[in-house]
Amino acid sequence: MTHLHDHLDAHSDAHLDLPWQLLNSVAAVTDAPLAQIADRLREATVPYVAGSALIIFTEDCTGRPQKKAGDEEIISRVSIAELDALRALVPDEVPWFGEAAVGDRTRPVLALQHPSSRALLILTDPDPAEREECGDRLEVVTYLWGLAARRIHEKVTDAPPSYLAESRAASAERVRVTAELTDLHSTTLETLLAALRSSGLDDATARSTVTDLTAKALIELRTLSDRTTDMVEEPVATAFERLREDLRPLTRFSGIDVEFIEPPLNGRALPGEVGHAARAIVRGLVLAMMEQPAISRIRTQWDCDGENLLINIRDDGSGALSASAPNISRLNRQVEALSGQLRLDVMSGWGADVFVTLPLDPPAAPSGEIAGWNLAARELEVLQLLAAGLRNRAIAVSLGISENTVKFHVRKLFKKLGVGSRTEAIALAHSHGIQ
User: Fold this and answer.
1) Residues in the chain with pLDDT < 70?
2) Which of 182, 201, 234 corresponds to the end of one domain?
3) Whether residue 146 sits in one domain with residue 25
4) In whole angstroms, what is the distance from residue 164 CA to residue 209 CA?
5) Residue 433: per-residue pLDDT
6) Do residues 150 and 27 share a domain?
7) Do 140 and 31 share a structural domain?
């Protein structure tokens, strides 16, 4: 008995010596939903390297490439152009200390780039002493950042329905806002150019200088617009090549011949969420087909009719796939999140033929009864994210507003929709095509 007590005491001492703060931080980061990952990562890293704000810049998430936590004055002003410029300075895996423009002001930063995804982590205003003294602590931050970057990549690769719906709403809103800003500033600058070129101005030097500056501003504005478009779209051929690379490890040693039928090179570019969903759906279907007995060949083909991405996957198995199987049902939910369709044709002894249609554009703008709800733009955004299954905190993070503001919008939504609960609001939204 004494020996047992000694053993338990030793076990208890070992238990108390475990680094529970770090282990809890690891668990929080690895379990974080995308909408909360910046908050979780900041909470995890503050004990090791403190800073005024934490910013993640990842093009894996085409809808919301910035994930931010901390000082509102910084995270509300940081721009993609600033983050692009900073990323060019940061080497792979090696922590970078320096000064950079972040949030409309040059400030000290610590930056880390994840080598495989090129995702960027920025901590603003780190303690000056950290650079000289934080060796082990910086290793912990680097480790936690690696976990977060992989979590983001895995979550996007899996493309769950809630992510696809949120990403589509965010992509559409960002393109709309950027287009409006581009039109507004282009008109202003073009008017200014016309005035400065007028023969009524006799100060040639001033006119030349301002003309050059304005022309440069126009170029930068167009570049920003193109950059935004590039982030939310990818050429269909590029998306298909990424699919081929994704499937290579799955098929290399399977003994199954996987045939790829290339899409047209001039096909319309895919919105980011459609490209993510298409790859996840094809991967899932190929895995489901490979689990069948006596299968030797799978063919996957993409096409684009200008309005939809058309996917066809066929196998030569026994025809054992079922539309009601959990793995197929999960894939169908991903398709439905983008208002698409999945059809499975099975012939016993001849194999399965799967057809997937993914619309490239979001559903048409609300009309009819929806227009009669008189929803403000922000209220419609909140309703879309509610319909996608997000809770108030996730909506707040997604839209960059406070949770109390979300609650305010939800109360107004209930009143305008004539409902008394979130469930009723979501059901009504779904019945009108808002998903």
Assistant:
1) 1-17, 62-64, 93, 128-134, 162-163, 165-166, 169-184, 187-188, 191, 195, 198-202, 206, 221-232, 363-369, 371, 433, 435
2) 234
3) yes
4) 47
5) 67
6) yes
7) yes
Instruction: Give the 3-state secondary structure percentages of the chain, helix then strand then coil, rounded to 5.
Output: 55, 15, 30
| 57 SS3 class | strand
- CA 397, 234, 144: angle at the middle one, nearest 5? 45
The answer on 262 and 293 residing in a single domain is yes
Distance separating alpha carbons of residues 373 and 366, to the nearest angstrom: 10
Question: Under a CB-based contact definition with an 8 Å cutoff, are residues 302 and 400 in contact?
Answer: no
Are 326 and 197 contained in the same domain? no
* 118 burial level (CB within 10 Å; 0-12, 13-18, 19+): middle
Asked whether residue 14 is domain-assigned, the answer is no
User: Residue 177 to residues 55, 181, 429: CA-CA distances in angstroms?
Assistant: 22, 6, 23
Cβ atoms within 10 Å, residue 287: 12
* Domain-embedded: residue 353: yes
Q: Which two tokens stand for residue 383?
A: 């309703």
| Number of compact structural domains in the chain | 4
> For residue 54, what are its two tokens?
């934490």
Give the pLDDT of residue 388.
Answer: 75
Of the chain, the end-to-end C-alpha distance in Å amounts to: 63
For 233-325, where are the alpha helices, taking DSSP H only?
Answer: 236-251, 272-290
Report CA dihedral (211, 212, 214, 218) to the nearest 10 degrees.
130
Q: Do residue 201 and residue 244 come from a single domain?
A: no
CB atoms within 10 A of CB 115: 12
Q: Which residue has the tokens 């205003």?
A: 125
Structure tokens at 293: 């007995």
Domain that holds residue 222: 161-234
What is the reported pLDDT for 188? 67
pLDDT of residue 55: 93
Q: What is the pLDDT of residue 7?
A: 47
| Residue indicated by tokens 């617009």 | 225
* Helix (H), strand (E) at residue 356: strand 351-359
Give the pLDDT confidence score for residue 355 in this predicted structure. 94
Sole residue written with tokens 């721009």: 79
